[in-house]
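Fold this sequence, please.
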Amino acid sequence: MRAWRHSGPALLLLATSLALPAQGQPSSPKLRAVDRALLPATAQIQDWLDQKDSWGPAYTGSPAWQKFMGLVRAELARMGAVNLLEHSFPYTRWYTTEFPDKSGWSLSSDGTHVEVASYGTQSGSTGPAGVTAPMVLYDLALPVEKRPPLAALAGKIVVVKQQPYASFGTPARVPLGVAGPRTAAAYCGNPPACRPPLRGAEPPSPQWGKPGPLMSYMDYEYRSGGDSYATRLFEKVPVTVESSFRNRDQFGQIREVITNVLVPSRAAGAVTVMDLSPLAAAGTRIHPTPRQFNVPLLMLDRVAGAKVLADAAAGKSAHLVLDAHEEENATAYELLATLPGRDYGSPSDQAILLATHLDGPSVVEDDGGLAILAVLHYYAQLPQAERPRSLIAFFDTRHFVPGTEGSYPFDLVKDRPDLFRSVVGGVAMEHFGGLQFVEEGDSYKPTGKPATTYIWGWPNALAVQEAIAAVKDQALPRAIVDVPARPGVNGKPQQRWLGGGFSRYLVDLGGWPGWHVSGDWPSAGFQAYYPAAKTRLSAEHFRLQSAVAVQLVNALMTKDVIAMAPAWGYLQTAIDLLDKGTVRDRLQQEFSASFALVQAGQYAQVRGALLALAGDAGKSLTGAAADSFDGAMRQARTLLDRAIARQAGLPAVDRAELR
C-alpha cells in the first residue's frame, strides 16, 4: 500500500467541515423530515406538465425546447436561483413534423396508403416528392445467410422485419451477423465538426454478476409493493403484465441495422416493422439517437406493417416520403443555476448537484427538469441561512442529440470544472410521473398503476438505508432500490444501472455520494405522443417521487457525506465477496471497526484503522481477491485525500483513482 499524501490537522478539518455542515446552528425541521406542504401542489405540477405537453417534443434547439427552457429559466428566477449560465455548443438541428402531425412523412405500399407510427430520426430526407422504389424484405429472424446480401439492397426500399419480443432472451434470437463498416461513412451530419464518435462514459458503478438480458425484474436491495410485480425475479415479463421490457427491446433493434446494413448497402430508403401495437408504436424514437445517416427511414407497428411485409416479400414497390430539414447554427446550450446555501460565496461553500437532461421526445421521458424544479421549490421556501449547502442544478441538453453525450463532447462539467468544485453529493432525476402500460392483443392501455421507479446507488450501507427510508417514509409505490455493484438480498445480480450518465458526474467529480431516481420510461413515456399529460402520467405520482428526492437531498444537506460515499461500500463489498472462512470473517470485523469510526466522525483514527486493515489483507489475500481489495482500499484512501485537498487548498488527488 502506498503512503498517504496528507494527514493530521487537515483530516480534523475535514471532519468539521464535511461531516457536520450545520454545526453550531439548529437544523430546520424541514430538513429532518419532508414537509409536503413545501412541495409544489399537484395543480402546479399538472400545469407544468400541461404546458410542456402543449409544446410537443423538446428536442434541442426546437421551438418546443426553447419554450421549455423559458419555463425552466422563469421558475429558477422566481425561486431565487442565481448565476444562471448558458453553456452553448455548435449544433445543426435535423427536424420534420411531429406526431400527431404526420404531414412530413408517409408511405404507400403497392399503391395503398399505410399508417406510419413514426419517422427514423436523423435519417436524411427524401424532400417533399419522396422516393419510389421496389421493396426488399430483410427479416432479422432469419440467419444472415438466408437474408439478401447488402448488394441486393442498393437503390431499394428495405423493409426490416424486427425480431419479436417472444425471441428476446431465448436461443431463437438471431444475432445480426453483419459486421459494421471498417471506415466511417463519409456523410456524418452532426456534430458540425464531424468528429469521430467518442466512447461513452462507463456506468456509474461496476456490475456484479451477469444479470442477463433486460427482460425481467432482477434482484434488489428493497422494493415496495411486492405483490404488484406479478412475475418472479429473472422471469421474462409478458406485455400483458408490463410493456416496458418489450418496448425497450423494440425501440433499440434498428440501431445496429442502420449502421451495419442500411448505410453500407446504399439503400434508397427503409421501413422497420416493430413488434408493437399501434398505440405503443405511435411516435416511436430510435434510441440511442444515431448520428445522421442518409437512408430515409419510417417506423411501423405490426398491424400496419403486415401488408408492407407481404408486399416486400413479393417484390412490390413503395413510395416513401420523409420531408426533413436542417437548421444550421441552431440555438443549443446546457444550463446551470444555483440556489444559494448558507455559505454561498465563501470558500467553505458546499453544494449538492441536481442533474438531469431536458431534451427529448415526450412529456415523461424528458421531464427531469420539472423534477428539479419541484425539489428547488421545496428549498426555496427555506431561508438561505437554513440551507446548510447550496444546490447546483445542471440541465443537460445533449441526451437526444446525434450520438448522444459521448459523441457530442461539449460537456459543461468537463469544460468548466471550476463551477463544480463545491459539489459534495448529488441526486439525478428522470422520468417522473409515468404510468404503467400493458398490451392485450393490439390494445395498449394503462393498468392504473405507476411505472416502476428505480433508485440506483452505490454500495454504501448508510446510503442504501437512506434510499430505503425515503421510499418507505414517502410511501412510494412500486419502487426498487438497486445497487448494481453487489449481490441483492437474494444473492443474485441486481438491475444494471440504466441511463447513469447524470450520476456519473459524482464519480468524475470525486466519488461523492448520491442517488439516481428514475421512472421506467419505456412503458408510457418514450414516444413523441401528444397529448399525454393526463393519459400517460400522473401529477400525484410525480409529487410522490419529488418527495423521495427531497428526502434524499435532506440527507445530503444534514449528514456526513464522507460516511455515505461509495468508496466505503466498495471496500466492504470487496471483503464480503471473498470466500467464506476465517480470513473473510477477520477482515469483515476489521472493516466494521473502521467504518464505525467513520460513522462516529472520528476521522483522526480512521487512517490507522485502514492501515491495519490493509496490512492484514496484504498477508492473507492473493490474485484477483487481492487486486479487488487493493483497488477498493485505494478508493477509500483517495476519497479522504481528495476531501482534505479540497478543504485545505492542497493539490488535487488523481481523479482516475476513483473510477
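The first strand starts at residue 82 and ends at 88. DSSP finds 17 helices and 21 strands in the chain.
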